[in-house]
Amino acid sequence: MTKKAGKAVTEALGEDIDRMLGAEPDVRADAYDSVHQMRVATRRLRSVLRSYRRLFRKSETTELSAELKWLAGLLGVARDAEVRAERFAALPATGAAGEAEADDNGGQAGDSTDAGAELDSGKDADGGQTAVVDRLAEAQRSIYAEAHAEVLDALDSDRYADLRRTLEHWRTDPPLRGKRGHASARKVFRAVLDGDTERLRTRILAEPDLPEDERVEALHDIRKAAKRLRYSAEAAVRVLGDDADDLRARAKQVQSVLGDHRDAVEAAQVILAAASEAEAAHTATVADTDIYILLAAAEEAAAARELERYPEAAQAFTAGDHSGQSAD
Questions:
Q1: What pLDDT, on a 0 to 100 scale, did the predictor assign at position 97?
Q2: Are the C-beta atoms of residues 10 and 174 closer than 8 Å to each other?
């Protein structure tokens, strides 16, 4: 018997809703990586709603998506600070920028080995580099603590209670459009993946022709398109099997490479902003300023390294026919 699209998408949504709500107790307890897990589940839900939107009634979908965006935004502030705190804390041990985790992420820079050597030589007897790195990491920990407190306030709010009730309803009885919900799951899911694949391919092909000053944001848009495809493909694995799983893996690779690139670019920006703030407050010595600049250069070098990995990942969507189309 042919599986119906409504049943298949309900199953996929149910799994994501379970992940999101299941992470809540750990977020309340501030367990390690819990904010990340809840944020990813929230983003995945929004992405599935967007990709499979034609299966649902528009008004209810728009309302739920807006509430998920609100929650994901709060979780994102905390998660980004958590990632940067860990990234900055690792700088003295590596002598250069470490790779940050891709969630839910260019300028060129000098050779990373040179940057690392300069960082090593910049360490003075007073541990100047360590002191600067500690300040950077502690600032991000403070941001995380404040953001996590805001998340807890949100989880205790009437707005979140309403969101939980809505999700519980969607988990078993989402507002499906009758005719489309009864269509073949294979045909509907295949069409969604083809559309999301073409969206990603179009962005990849357009990026080389853009001015250099638009490249970082264009790569960010490619990353978002890859993430959308990854999540829609994950939702389709039960229906389309290996075709969807292969597409998921290729999209995840693009997302991961560009995620690491974005993390490094933004980390460099945060370091330089911290240097400017320290100079304005007259709390940074000349040696401190030099260390800030070297740390930022190391992050820029890390971004350049990630960008070197991008063409191979992107080629999976531009070399030949990788649409993954198959006969029903």
A1: 43
A2: yes
Percentages helix, strand, coil for the chain (3-state, rounded to 5) are 80, 0, 20
Inter-residue contact 55 to 180 (CB < 8 Å): yes
Average pLDDT of 108-117?
Answer: 42
Report which of 263, 227, 287, 300 is spatially closest to residue 86, judged by C-alpha positions: 263
Query: For 210-246, how does the pLDDT look when each residue is reduced to its tens digit (9 = 90+)?
Result: 998 899 899 999 999 999 999 999 999 999 999 999 9
Find, among 174, 234, 130, 229, the residue nearest to 6 by Cα. 174
Q: Where do we find the tokens 């229906």?
A: 239
Domains and CATH numbers, the chain: 5-95+103-315 (1.40.20.10)
Residue-by-residue DSSP string for 64-113? HHHHHHHHHHHHHHHHHHHHHHHHHHTHHHHSSPPPPPP---------HH
Per-residue model confidence as pLDDT tens digits over 172-183: 899 998 888 999
- Determine the Cα–Cα distance for residues 35 and 151; give it in Å rounded to an integer: 9
CA distance 304 to 299: 9
